[in-house]
Amino acid sequence: MRQVAGKMKTQLDGEFRIANKSDEFAIENAVGEMGRIEEAKRRFVEGKNIE
Question: Rounded CA gap, 9 and 16, in Å?
Fold first, then answer.
């Protein structure tokens, strides 16, 4: 029983680390996208062509 519990804990720890990395990746992507949106707004307001 202890071995099973230990293996489950190890598996869950690994999944948690993967989830954390996935969350961080999603956050970084969202921040990058927000920066691109802000730049697009700035160009639009300035009347620049976006090509």
Answer: 10
What pTM, to 2 d.p., does this model score? 0.52
Q: Is the pLDDT of residue 44 over 60?
A: yes
pLDDT of residue 33: 93
Sign of the Cα torsion 17, 18, 23, 27 reads positive
User: Which residues, including other chains, have CB under 8 Å from residue 16's CB and lie 6 or more apart?
Assistant: none
Beta strands in 1-51 (DSSP E): none
Q: Which structure tokens are listed for 39?
A: 């730049």
Q: Domain extents for the chain?
A: 20-51
As a whole number, mean pLDDT of residues 20-45 equals 89
Estimate to the nearest angstrom the gap between the alpha carbon of 48 and the chain centroid: 31
